[in-house]
Amino acid sequence: MMFILKKLVSRFFFPLSLVIGLLLLGIFLKKRRTTVIWAGVLLLYTFSFAPFGYLILRPLESQYASISSSSLNKEVRWIVVLGGGSKGDNALTPEDRLGDSSLKRLLEGVRLSRLLPQARLVLSGGDYRGISPDALTMQQVALDQGVAGDRIMLEAASFDTGDQAQFLKDRLGQSPFYLVTSAGHMPRAMRLFIRSGTQPIAAPTDFRAIWAPFQLIDFFPRGQVLADTESAFYEYLGLGWSLITITAGR
Q: What is the pLDDT of residues 158-177, one digit of tens each?
């Protein structure tokens, strides 16, 4: 119940929800209607403006560097991949059922598993709808990528990152492990896993805030930038919620 409530409440603070809220407010206002509507339009443009998307995501994604073959810790025996969403349409291939973030995370986990043949791949992620747990879909793709079945372990009961950290802590114990998730999600994931008493090593992937010279076309709003802004808002809200729960628990 708390999971559903948290999801619903957070949606009111997402970029598009804030914009629509302002526009609806402007429609029903008798005074300052034009001002409020223009504020909503300006906010929508800002959220879809490439430099804004970069600036809001970059502080999250720059905290941890990706793992290269030269920086690899060869003593690691666990590679934990956090699911990032999937679709339940069985008419699609497993690769198409995985969301973009889940697919990139899994591919990074597979890459690390090839560099660390002694390590086991832990695929984590359930589905609160009870339709298509991320872990099961990721397992199908991992098998298609040549990962041996006996090297894969599943955790398919969790609903969010907090659950994943709690459900995996006994299995991981105090052994260091690579934690694979999207770069923007990594600060919150690391905080939750460290708080659970485990020893994660950040292995970020799915970087979106990638620097490129500014071009005239960047003045135009883009849907992908709006999606990136939404992802950043979600992470900042999650970090705020984690801080509240930690403070309340003291």
A: 999 999 999 999 999 999 99
Q: Are residues 90 and 9 in the same domain?
A: no
pTM of the model: 0.91
Closest by CA position to 186, among listed 54, 86, 63, 53: 63
CB 221 within 8 A of CB 46: no
User: With contact defined as beta carbons under 8 Å apart, do 193 and 178 qualify?
Assistant: no
In three-state secondary structure terms, 82 is: strand
- Whether residue 18 is contained in a domain is answered as yes
Query: Domain count of the chain?
Result: 2
Sequence-distant contacts of 166-171: CB under 8 A, at least 24 apart: 166/196, 167/124, 168/80, 168/122, 168/124, 168/196, 168/198, 169/196, 169/197, 169/198, 171/122
Residue 101 dihedral angles phi and psi, to the nearest 5° = -65, -45
